Structures are given as structure tokens and as C-alpha cells.
Amino acid sequence: MEYCLDTGDLEMVKKVADLYPIRCFSMNPSIAVNCLRGTGRTFLQNAKMIREVIGEDTPFYLEAMGDTAEEMIEDAHKIRQEIKGNTMIKIPACPQGFKAIRLLKEEDILCSCTAIYDFNQAMLAAEAGAYCVAVYVSRVDNSGGDGIEVVRKIKEAFVMEGIACKVSAASLKQVNYLEKAALAGADNVTVTLDLLEKMAIHPLTQKTLDTFKADWESLFGEGMRVANMTE
């Protein structure tokens, strides 16, 4: 399972790219607005700066806007023209979106169908040619459903039918959902820096490291490391 950082915050991207094994990055319209307000940067300017940090080979998911398939396709072309490298297009799960995915697939442009809330939307997206379907897990839960169960059913159906489409668990708000998503078969989970840090830090690990350091320094002295030792 791969982890995908969902942000438009350039400094956050730099920090995460330096520390964590993140395989892809994404940015939806709401996240972009929240991160860009007051910066003076446009969506494309910011995306280009992120691309420079993560490199051209790293998957980068960016959303096409528009009310019609034609408008979404026009946005997709502009994004691909301006943001070089392994850039994929996010298209919403709606009738016009399914049309856009199908037509972009004919151009060999990979699309992630986003804002998936149920099994049927995911099946339509896959049939249209989506490379990935992104289930909004927490939002499904908030509406009275079971987002992880939706992920599990979609993944089971894709495997059963031999459908080559990835399943992403998106909109995750709690760290325990990452484990649930993995066990449900998600190929990808979108995360925030907050979730990553909760995954990475455990109080018992820090306690163990403190013990190791105290024991080591009791014999070899404060600040001594292997690199400082002579034979």
C-alpha cells in the first residue's frame, strides 16, 4: 500500500519528501485554496513548485475543474501541458466526469476518479477507464455509512472481475483508519502531515531510545557515537 500526501503547502511537501517514504502527492481544489490564500501564487505556479521538489517521476494528482466533460478535458490538457512529469488528472464521480475519464483514457491520460461515495460509482469509474478510484472514507462515515466497508467491497469486486483499477482510501481523519484501509485492501491512502507524524511517533519507542542513549553514554561518554570512535 502506498501513502499519498494530500496538500498544497509547499513547505509541508519539502518536509515530508525529506523524511517520509511517500510515493505520491495530490491536491484537491479546497486544499489548494486553503494553502494558496494570501500567498499570491496561482494553482499552476504552486503545482510547478511542488513538482520541482518531488521530481518528475513521482505521481502527482491534480484536479480538473469544470461542469462539463469538455471543460474538464480542457483543464486536464492545460495541467498536463504546464506540470511536466508523471502528472495524473483527478476527475469527479459524476456523469460528465465518467465521460471525461473515458475520453481522456483514449488519449492515454491516466485519471483518478475522486469523490467516490459508494460501490456503484466506483464500478462506473472503472468501466470508464479510471486508473484509480478514491473513496472519501470519513465523509461516507459522516453521512451514516461505513467508508472502510465501501473500500473493501470495491477492492473485492475489482479482484473478482479482474479489473485493473486501484482503490484509494481518501479523506481519512484518524490514524487507526490507515490500518483499517490496509486490511480492507486499499492500494493507496491519502494522508496529512498530522497523520504521518501520529504513525511515526510512539511514546514507547521514544522511551526505548532514551534508555539506549543513557546506557550507551554511561560507558562511552556523552555525545560519543560510533563515527567518533577510533579502533
UniProtKB/TrEMBL annotation:
<protein>
    <submittedName>
        <fullName>Fructose-6-phosphate aldolase</fullName>
    </submittedName>
</protein>
<dbReference type="InterPro" id="IPR001585">
    <property type="entry name" value="TAL/FSA"/>
</dbReference>
<dbReference type="GO" id="GO:0005975">
    <property type="term" value="P:carbohydrate metabolic process"/>
</dbReference>
<dbReference type="Pfam" id="PF00923">
    <property type="entry name" value="TAL_FSA"/>
</dbReference>
<keyword id="KW-0704">Schiff base</keyword>
<dbReference type="InterPro" id="IPR013785">
    <property type="entry name" value="Aldolase_TIM"/>
</dbReference>
